[in-house]
Queue: 4 jobs
Job 1
Amino acid sequence: MVQIVKQYSSINDYISDTVNNPEVLYPDRCGNCGSQTFCLNGFYERKSEGRGKEVEVKNGELKIRRLKCSGDSCGTNYSILPSLVPPLRWYLWCMQQFIISLFLSGTSISKIVAHCAMSRSTITRWIRWAEDNWKLFCAELMPKHTWMSKLSNFTGFYSSLFKRWKLSQVMAQLHQMGLAVP
């Protein structure tokens, strides 16, 4: 299944489009066969309860719209994720940004763990992911955002980035550029 990330400022906007205007979710063309025709193919549920204040979903379940290519014998399935929901991750981008921001401000991992209801391994994994990928993200974004050329370290990159954008917006941009974002 191919995942497409669409930019949304709220989950409610995404839910409204899935119900009232699903054609805005369709990709321009199928990445497999080039067809421009799709049919709705149901939903799958993502849990979101307790994973970020930006989620306003009943019972913590968000229905992710699925599409199927109608091209000749193609049948490629697509899932359309709102940008606030990270692919293959349990917590929302806003929670990850909060944790990374605490770490950047000098808060120790022990204090972050005490402040947040998450495991130490999750928090450590997110910080390690941010440290491991900042140069790649900067290199991908720099051609469109020249101010990044002055950023020379992990702390400066994310501090500057978070002053301008939410992490969900950055990850949606990187996804649209073809970078596989976890």
Job 2
Amino acid sequence: MVAATGWTEGITALEAGKFDHAHQLLSAAAEAVDALGGGVEHADEIRHTADEAALLVDLLSDTLESLLEEAGRTSPQSWATRFDNIYKGRAVIIDASITATPENSRWNRFELDYLVLAPGESARGDPRYARIDLSGFEAVTLARGKVGDRIVFGGRLDSFQYNTEAQEWLIRLSPQSGVLFTHQKALEALGWPSGVRNLEKEPRTD
């Protein structure tokens, strides 16, 4: 019954933007599914939706752009300490298109067309920017997206550091924290445009 309630009422709450309520119902449903060894109807969908809800209730309150501005004017050690104390583990949602895969990337990783640009940096000749480093990030690597595919996913911040070799800031996400968002109405409750088509959740076979 707990799993069934999560599947019905939990998803309804999620798509209505009632994220706290959805998280309570769906996290309990996912625990019930695990306790029953997965032998429950819609078990995988319940677990996946619970992961979506868990990220939505723990979203970063600041923007990545504001974090980049702060990081750029702070000493490396001070920033590392502040990041670990305040921002590490908080969730973010990214909506971008894949521009490179490990097979054709200079850095042997998936790359996106999304650059984090600090406020006012576009006017500079050498703007401060950060890339999302998807190395080992399972939500993207297991989905086997192709160049040009649009992807909407969430994950938890793991590090935010300057890479001297690449001469750019890199934002890394915890490898196993990723979720491909499948509930469009939940995104719309956050202000996302309607009609976002994400990668399929299951790995491709082509």
Job 3
Amino acid sequence: MERINWHRLFGLLLADFFTDSPFIVELEKDLSIKKQSLDVVVLRKRPGRFSGKLPDGLDNLSKHNLITFKSHQESLDDWALKELTAHYVNYRKQASPSFDKLLPEQTFRLYAVCSRFPRALANSKDWKPVQDGVFELLRGTDQIRVLVLGQLPNEEHNAVLHLLSASPEKIRYGAGHYQKHSAETSTLLDRVFIGYQREGLDMPYTMEDFRQDYLRASIKELLPEQRSKLLENLTPQERLEGLSPEEIDAYLKRLNQSPPAKKRTKK
């Protein structure tokens, strides 16, 4: 069975999230002759403000933003942060005009994103809480911002990160609130959820739940005429799927209480 590449999925989700924004996302950046890949680089490509609200912890993006990601199968530990700072040194050299004229240090940001809380790192005296799910850790002169996905608040701007939190409740929230940014969004979300299923993550949440939650969130963006067109192509049973018996009963009650339509009289 093909192994799920969670690092690539994380990068693809960020690429989708930053579609049509001042930032572009580069995946698996090759930093040496002997391949050493940095998970994600979020690079500002032009001046301008990001449309909307950035996820918690990513609200201080600079020109070059280097991100390491650890899924629910991995631990964010001391070695992972050593690798991140090593990638930063290598990347800064490559991105600069020359080794003697390095780009300013303040144009770089370092991030560590993880599904599981890094307990060993949290015991460090340099570990500092910033807000729910967001921490900062000083390593020498390097400030690393740590995002713990399972602790981020359930707010719409965090939905893209909740999808990789490995928390059933957070994943459900992410699926129901992540906004469509490209034609590939729904396929990408399906791949995320299939990945959890393949790896046996115990979630009281089915693929159908996933699609219904995403459809409910997406349909709100449609114009009334587009919504009507979509419903025309569904059978009565398909229209009712995803509604609870209580919701159907409430609708029928409202329908029965509505005044009957007036019949036209022929002249």
Job 4
Amino acid sequence: MVVNRAWRRVAPFGVQFVDDQTGRFVADGLVVTGWPTGEPSRRVVARLNRSAVFVLHDVPGIRDLEMGAGDDAYWSTVPRRPFVIDVDDMTRRFLPFRFTVELPLRGLLQLTCGSPPSVPGPGSTTVRGVPLFTAPTRPAVPGSAVVRADLWDAVANAPAAWAVVQASIPSAVARGVPPVRALADDRGQVALHLPCPDQEDLDGGPFESPSGPGPVPLTARTWSVDLAAAYGPLSSDPRAATSSHGAPIPDLCAAVMQPPATLWSDRSQTMPLTRASLTYGRETILRSIGSGAGPQSVLLLTPGSPP
């Protein structure tokens, strides 16, 4: 028997995940699974290689297609089939999510849905990969500021599950720094972890006080961020699975493509909330005036209209 040595085993799917706080690749603690759309009983677990890439092999329905040359001719003619990919973090640092992709896929997956902002990496680099959204229970990374809110759908009178909140420093955006974006969990709880700003972005001018002998304390410095939100809400699928912790799993692309929504400064919904002031070294809790205190304190949000 003559063996065609030009053929090799082709991986039908590969993906890397990026920490939305640090911009670094994440592999530890993640469980990535996939199955043909509509056939969750045929789920397979992705394997992690030495390059922090999760790879699927022996994929149900396309196993025969994994043997091929892997050249341009192969990729131009190979038939593709939709698959669902689930991502779950066993350490609960990141929210679970899922997305659909057609396999086999050439190269590493790069999701383009919703035109998400670039994930900043160490230094001035930009890391490519699928973003992981920080769970509201995750501790802050040293040197970051945290903004929290319990988002409440003012129309449905229910938690704004999987709403998106974005924060940005106008002067930093002008220098090319991307906004920071966070996804709420199924209870509407959200936490934005923002890098502490450069000196030029702090309110109050330079650190040396012109009216006193010493510098203005860092813990007394503030800065402002512009806020924006997106919320549909997402329709629920009765067939949708839950994560290993029992939480519903949202579709990532559906979440990041939700229409613009309005955050409200007050319960009467007369003043949109578009800016917040942060203090160095303190967590900021966003809430609508008159929405209550303690556990009942929420940030009201009204959904936008689908595009």
